[in-house]
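Narrative summary of target 7.
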Amino acid sequence: MELDSSNSSTSYASIRDISNFQSEEEILFSMHSIFRIGDIKQIKHQLWQVNLTLTIDHDPQLKYLTDFIRGEINVPNGWHRLALLMSKMGKFEKALEILSIFLQTTSVDGLGYCLRSQIIADIGRMKLYLGNSCDALVDLQKALEINQKSLPSDHPYLALNYSSIALAHYSTGDYGMALPFYEKALEIHRKSLPLDHSNLALNYNNIALVHHATGNYAMASSFYKKALEIYRKFLPSDHPNLALNYSNIAAAHYSTGDYTTALSYLEKTLEIHRKSLPSDHPNLALNYNNIGQLYQSMGNNEMALSYLEKALEIYRKSLPSDHSNLAVNYNNIGQLYQSMGNYTMALSYLEKALEIHRKSLPSDHPDLATNYNNIALAHYFTGNYAMALSFYEKALEIYQKSLPSDHPNLAVNYNNIAAAHCSTGNYTMALSFYEKALEIYRKSLPSDHPNLAVNYNNIGGLYQLMGNYTMALPYLEKALEIHRKSLPSDHPDLALNYNNIGGLYQLMGNNAIALSYFEKALEIMQRVLSNNHPWLPLTCSNMALTLQELGRYDEAVGYAIQASEIARSSLGPDHENTKAYENQLRELQQLMSLL
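Modeled conformation, tokenized:
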């Protein structure tokens, strides 16, 4: 620990002589002390040495950030200031408590109409941050009514009212109502503020979020960049609003499949949040959650789970048990377990998410549809196709009400319904849904987006099931081409591509080429998937069948045994696929006994 008393007025004292541990050089610092972390060295096992340096009184970065945040909560009343500070720290319940007491214990005359409307609006905002959008909207509209009577139509307070009401509508999934309120706020800010004012940047950011939610990623990206341009001019480099903007730009890149750029922006966000926010702030959790999702999309499930669990730990400490952010986190962890082949764990998390969303959201909210979709997928992978289809149809009903007809989420839903019909043998119905999905993807996504690859893969697989191998191959090759461009070389989806093309060549009687694709698939799967992942038995079974056709029976039996054992472990002994792999093994062993 280093300190220079000539450059710091921070109070401290040695307590070695009065400590219970006199062998230790203990120093007591005043509570407001701030240190910079220098080197961190591991001494042994879990013991580390951390070098700290006490900040000086005129530390330029710290002074700039402190003065800036102090300016953001610069309201005349001390209780109001304290509530806003609590809000900045993510302590929304405490902020709400302070504001409510302040409003109840101060007369209308004592507050004045202007301050009263601010307090009511801030109460609404705290309720909004705590996930209570409907109650929040009542307070925010009450504040707006007061301000509309007493203020000019272009007053900045009105713009803040409009923005808050827009956020409440956005939180309930009503994007059509959110956008015009955000645009009213923007109109006022453009008239009354300098072009590089922070509130204009916040406006651009909010409008971008609505465009993002409705699938208009190009428009979203342009508004995010307008906001970033302003923020960079006047914000300290470690200000939370800059972090929020980086996070939103990352989301836009993520939605277009540009994972590398998305990760770079999320890491910038995390760096700022770690410097400027308490360790249990919900925004840190949101950051961990986003990075976790991104790693999952990149095929790195181990990293994904570690970040998602960090997020969950913070959310459980800082949010009510029915907050929508907790539901989102449960959903993401459930999806991750699903991609890892652990469907029991997946369903437990997905059902927790659904329980929260049913309590806290309108019955036609898009997030509920996402829940239904995810639960359906878990049922689909365990072979319960009827249950899967019922959940997919619930999701579709919501999406058709709340989203534009060319939104990518609708395409995902069509894809999923098609897969369920395909598994029940209804190929004509499946093809019609796959083609609906493809039509949307071609309109709304770049030509090398991973979701397009999934769609091509599905259509190719369906044509294969229908016996039309000539139509199947070009679709499967398009999928492989996109995945080679957009994914890491050991991504599980690439393995699935190789497996599917191998299967098609096998059906066409070209076993040598089929084997080369299966080997590529198995190499990736064994490297990145768990030992009992359900994709492994499928590939092992394909290898066994191909080796049998090539007359390499000993090798074929070895792979058939692997397929049977892994399937029993991952799918259970009664699953139809497990029984199929066991039949394949018996037939191979009978064939071997005749040779």
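The chain has a mean pLDDT of 87.
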